[in-house]
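Lab notebook, bench 4. The sequencing result for the construct came back, and we need a structural model before the next group meeting so we can plan mutations. Quick request posted to the team channel:

Model the 3D structure of this chain.
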Amino acid sequence: MGNFFNSNTTNYNNFITNLYFKKIINQIIEIGKLKDTKKKILDFGCGNKELSKSIVEKKVLNYDIKPEYSDYDDYKNLKFDIIIINHVLEYFDKSEIIKFLEDLKRINPECELIVGLTIRGFVSNFVKNLLLQFSAHDNFISNYKDILETLNKYTENISKPRNIFFATKILHLKFK
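Done. Here's the predicted structure in token form:
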């Protein structure tokens, strides 16, 4: 699936990277009201499990295609009400995004999707260069516009999208 195996997992040791991604995680938690929910949460592409660390009182199902991060072998065998897909869809091509959305809808057509997308505009490129992470976007397959177009065919907004530092857009969606 996608270009995950060649991607870098976010390293939170850098102060600016930590600040940026913690802001994204906090916005995801706020948008989805994850601290107040009794719903099951799947963190798809969990990486270092920062979401779980931020809402320790909640049960988060941590799945990552990289086995060293994942608590499960296959997300398709899990039951969940909310799925977090943060900085992941960029590594999928369009057909993989479509198949993934179809799989999610088959698993739970009522699930909420909270999606973080890299905008890859001027600010995003400036920040990645400032952090000396020159190759941060090199393994991306899909761009923001194409991902958004595909999402719009299958989903609709639950709430207004949020822009994080003009570098990431967070969408709160449900299936049409």
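Residues 4-175 form a domain with the Rossmann fold fold (CATH 3.40.50.150).
Will bring this to the meeting.
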